[in-house]
Amino acid sequence: MGLRMKDGCLLYDKICNLKLAKDTPVYTAALKLFAKVGQSDRVRDIWEEATRMVQINVPLAAARIAAAAADGDVLAAAAVLDHMNQTGVPIGIGHISSAIRACWGSKDSHKPARYLFQLLLDLDLEPDIITFTCFIGACITAPLEDVLSTYANMKERGIEVNQVFAETFLVTVLRKPQDAAWSLDNLVTDVLPAQSPACLDAAREGLADFKAAGIKFSKLTARIDRALHQIQQMDV
Question: Name one GO biological process term (predicted).
Answer without folding.
Answer: RNA processing
